[in-house]
Amino acid sequence: MGVHGLWRFMTSQRALIKKYYLHDTKLVIDANNLYYFIQLESGISNEYRGDYHVFADKVKSFFGLLRKCGISPYLVFNGCQQLDQKLNQNIYKAYRNIHAVQKITKGKNAKLVPELGFETFKHIIVEIGIPFVVDDFNVKKNIAMLANEWKCPVLSSDSDFFMFCIEGGFVFLEQMNFPIKTIQNERTGKTITSLYCNFYDFKNFTKMFPGLDITMLPLLRGVSSWRDDDQQRLFANFLDNLEQAPADFGIKITATEKCSITLSLLYWLKNQRSVSEAIGNVTQFIANEERDRAIKIMQDTVNCYKELESSFNMKKYFETGQFEFSVNATNMLKANGNPLPQWFLKSSNRGNVARFCLEVLHQQSLVLYSQVENLEWESSHACSRHIRQVIYGILILHDMDKLPASKQSVEEYDRNGINIEKCEVKPILN
Questions:
Q1: What pTM value is reported for the model?
Q2: Cα–Cα distances in angstroms (integers) from residue 42 to residues 7, 36, 46, 62, in the given order
Q3: How high does pLDDT run on average in the chain?
């Protein structure tokens, strides 16, 4: 999701970011982030909906670099979104896709991933033998937890990882072709091949801002999300009234005008004694009729960093291939509140269940993203609606008698012209 301005601020601080020679280590990779990075930042042309052979070569080349440096990658994919957590963001993304299609159909450049790109990515990593797992939810915390268990770094370009205490560090995914450097081991004299990369250690952050509780950083995401226009409007008055950080705030800070809002947020956060106090102070700037919604957004944001855990032991799965399900973890529930069976979760965690099936089972809604098409015509997803209805029927029709009448359909969000509209789609079995 990301915090507005946080990536720019963190990467501009020389005291925080160090050059690092990465080699001979495990590396936990934010797989969804890597997929989008390769698709959108490596020069692949997608105006005709996917040069899949070029994409495959880019993926194989990337993992080839890691192999040269003795780096063992472990990919963790996002699973289902938490209930209602990202519906607005997914709708925002659908609008952004429409705008990209408008540009592409006019001969302009725009970033848009192809419809089958994600499945292609999974197929390639299976082909070249890269271990991966699909988490239950979209929880960055589990990536950080796995890295800490192995005492190894995380690779991503998501600013969310600045909010975790990752003992092995956070390596920035900034380029496809990381420079390869050879260094000499001072003790053995052996020549070592390594990736030369930018590296963040949270301990440098605590030195730069003594007294600031790093575990409260998730609050920044609650009040300063850059992907949700409605959320930006909700917290605009709070942000407009932030006290500017004093000149002596922090140690060895490279201050710029573009980073002033981030510094002011960090200064404000340093003066909060607890999460509940901080939430109460924010709501003073929110209209009465919207305070409950603002409180829920902030609480949900904080909770998604500390409460949800994977239903299984991810480390044990990677090391043995065996699932060990946790009794206390937050399991994925169906829309009627019943847990999904373990045989289904195992198949999902192995990547054998399409993500849209998880969304339908968990929250009975699905956002459909536009392809390159004539926007004056009906959405291209309309031709497969009957097929989706049958899939919905297989997934949830047997639970319908346990749901209220208002919940006996799947909410589809699809393009109508250049707008996104909701449609109630009835599950069927024929």
A1: 0.89
A2: 20, 10, 11, 11
A3: 86
